Amino acid sequence: MAEDPAGPSAGIVVFVAGTSTEVGKTWAAAGLARLLRRSGLTVAACKPVQSYDPDESGPTDAAVLAEATGQHPDAVCPPERTYPVPLAPPMAAGRLGRACPSLDEMAAGCRFEATAQVGLVEGVGGLYSPIASDGHNLDLIERIEPDLVIVVASAALGGIHDTMACTLPLSAHRRTVFCNRFDPGTEVHVLNVRWLRDSGLEVATSLPELAGIVTGAGAPGHGDTAVGAD
Q1: Smallest Cα–Cα separation from 93: which of 71, 75, 78?
Q2: Is residue 157 part of a domain?
């Protein structure tokens, strides 16, 4: 544990994790940021580190988050922590002959200005994907100690296993599941969400529902985590 862990001073700090890569973490985080800002809240995002395939078109995760929050992409993820290699960040950094920050260094960079009512930290890959030189997303979550962990998951076949596998290690944290690409007309989606809720998990299937949970409006018994709470 860092001597001075990143306990950001934002009103609420949310870590956006996922069950795997390409599950939609960045899309969910950006959509959530836009909704929260439209409701009048100030939102900031942090992508502690990112790697990507330079041959693929489209913006980086940091650029997508920056567009949603109004920040500059370099403020979301510093250039020195951006690696144009399609590997896990520590491996991508090694391929480039560059240093990947440690968990403590990364956590120290996950601070937000006091003006941010909601601070979003987006991880990489799945919960156990390597993110720092000495650990994975779960380790970083334990360093940051966010107010809420959002686990972005699929409601499709196999989604229950992936979701349970990623939420059980987070039992010491308040967490909620966001079933991305949920289709109420698809039976397996409906049944899987019902199973997860019956298992005691808080599950959102739309961004407005997720925004309500983040602000505390959709989370009975958690009013003390609402944005702007004294």
Answers
A1: 78
A2: yes
* 223 within domain boundaries: no
Region of residue 76 (left: phi > 0; alpha: psi -120 to 50; beta: else): alpha
Distance CA 21, CA 126 (A): 6
Per the structure, the complete domain to which residue 131 belongs is given by 12-216
- The rounded distance, in Å, linking the Cα atoms of 68 and 63 is 9
Answer whether residue 110 is part of any domain.
Answer: yes
Positions marked active-site: 47
pTM for the model stands at 0.89
Distance CA 31, CA 142 (A): 25
Quick check: is 146 in a domain? yes
Instruction: Give exposure, 41-60, as e/b (b: 16+ Cβ within 10 Å).
Output: bbbbbbbbbbbbeeeeeeeb
Q: Indicate if the pLDDT at residue 226 is higher than 60.
A: no
User: Can you tell me the mean pLDDT for 66-74?
Assistant: 97
Tokens 């596998």 map to which residue? Answer: 165
| CATH code, domain with 76 | 3.40.50.300
